[in-house]
Design brief:
The structure holds two protein chains of two kinds. Chain A has eleven helices and no strands. Chain A is mainly α.
């Protein structure tokens, strides 16, 4: 005779069905945040233990993957106390304009042209690892994981405007690192000087 | 052009998307910025971790959850 499942075993089944199946995605997200296999492994374990402890707070029918990403990102931040400084000024539009100014200077010294000939992904992967919080999480969620501003806002627990400004600033920092990478690699041509094209 | 990122992220209304698309097609100053930004975002999208999760990580998590009595 079949025994009717208890509430506890039903909860276990739900947890199995809703949460365990996302472990590969959580691992990939943890790798994107930490860029370190050992740290990512610990973060996956911590995420699942926290998910288990707060399983009662999960709203049935909501997005379990997004819920796990939220837990994972919060656990990552807790482990990264020293980098937990907040943005003093949140102005996405200013950061977007600064990114354009940076690109103008990259056009002037030829960095832009040189970067057009190389695959930017390896340099960007290294740059993401150097990006500080809270910018890294915003960039990883939107640019690497392909989440919308709204989805990232839910995961990060901040308004969409804050996601936007963190994202834009994160992108600007990454572009600065790209420019630095190009200069270090000797890509910059000092075209403005050589061609005397009058760029400021 | 402060909305370039919003445009490339497809986060604007259709009307604004259309207006910026038309502007970029005509403006020789903004067009290269948009091209560079697009290439930059495309490369960022390729930074997604491609590594498979090692099987022992899953086993370790499951074992811990079993120890806690949550899964059988």
């Amino acid at each position: 005779m079949e025994v009717k499942p208890s509430t506890i075993s039903a909860a276990r089944e739900d947890f199995d069905r809703e949460v365990l199946r996302w472990m590969d995605d959580v691992y990939r997200f943890a790798m994107s945040l930490t860029r370190d296999a050992t740290q990512a492994e610990d973060l996956v374990q911590e995420t699942y233990l926290r998910a288990f402890r707060s399983w009662q707070t999960f709203q049935p029918g909501s997005d379990a993957r997004r819920w796990l990403f939220t837990i994972c990102r919060n656990a990552f931040l807790r482990n990264l106390e020293r980098e937990r400084h907040q943005v003093s000024i949140d102005d996405g539009d200013l950061d977007a304009l600064s990114a354009m100014q940076l690109h103008t200077s990259m056009q002037s010294d030829g960095t832009d042209e040189a970067l057009a000939r190389v695959d930017l992904a390896p340099a960007l992967t290294a740059a993401i690892a150097r990006l500080h919080e809270p910018f890294r999480s915003a960039v990883v969620l939107v640019d690497v994981e392909g989440q919308s501003y709204e989805e990232a806002s839910e995961i990060l627990g901040v308004p969409i405007g804050t996601v936007r400004s963190r994202l834009f600033r994160g992108r600007r920092h990454l572009q600065e690192m790209l420019a630095e990478y190009a200069r270090d690699a000797g890509f910059a041509l000092n075209r403005g000087m050589a061609a005397g094209d009058g760029h400021a | 052009m402060s909305q370039l990122w919003d445009y490339l992220d497809d986060e604007l209304t259709q009307e604004r998307m259309g207006a910026i698309r038309r502007h970029l097609a005509e403006c020789s100053r903004c067009h290269p910025h948009a091209e560079f930004a697009e290439r930059f975002l495309e490369a960022l999208g390729r930074c997604r971790c491609q590594e498979e999760m090692p099987e022992y990580v899953r086993e370790r998590v499951l074992e811990r959850l079993r120890d806690l009595g949550f899964i059988s």
